[in-house]
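Hey, can you fold this one?
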Amino acid sequence: MAAAKVQDVLLVGFGAVGAMYALILKRSGLARVTIVARSNYDAVIEHGVRFESAKYGVITGWRPDRVVRSVQEAADRPYSYVFVTTKAIPERTSTPSILKPLISAPYPQPTYVLLQNGLNVETDLYHAIKELGKEPSIISTALWINTNLLEPNVVEHGIVDRVSIGMYRYNDFTTEANTPAEAAVLEDIGAILTAGGSEVAIVPEVQRKKFSKNFWNVAFSSFSTLTGSHKPSMLLDAEKGQAIEVEAILGAVVRLAQERGVAVPRVEMLYALLLVVQNQLLAKLESSS
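Sure. Predicted structure:
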């Protein structure tokens, strides 16, 4: 029996989620993993990463196959998959602008796997690739994971890393089955993630899963951020002075409801309140830059 093919995989965004999925990809034995680490590049290069995981144990001095400082530096070769684990915050920067060196690289386009919270986070990337006359291949995800970055190279993780994956189909809300080509792509990346230890579900209509997950974020993350009653990632970001995912998580729901004539007054109220928080955070970030 022939050995399974090892594929080149790039991961953009080396926070807690990015670090965990870099570990999972590397654990599979099926991926050569390159990571883009910006603010924590020096710490990862000098000391590696320490994982404190209830599921995978304590791992010290871990490193991927390659660490680079920028997407531009990473765009020196083709990849089968590009994982995007940056926060979806269009007020700061868009996903296409982050990935521009890859989108315009003289190689076949990879399949992009977006491990991002929120709805419609794929749309801008889809259009950016289409505008260059290329056919987008984008995997949408609904991710459940309990992880946090304790230090630039120290990651805390519980026992959960569960992800539903499916092909992104622009403006398609009715397709209920994967084509053979879609199924092949999903089964390939699903096998890599499963071999690495993650719990994976391949679904034909992933937007339904994303919608359900997003409403958990709308109800839990937004309320907790405003009241400080719990510590979801949105509140942790706010406490660190970082911008929050208000547009992807709440703004997208408000705009979707307006397009379809559905009243969502409570979501609109949460959105308005969090916009105040966001604007304060953005003003502080701009004044310190």
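The chain has a mean pLDDT of 95. Let me know if you want another pass with a different chain boundary.
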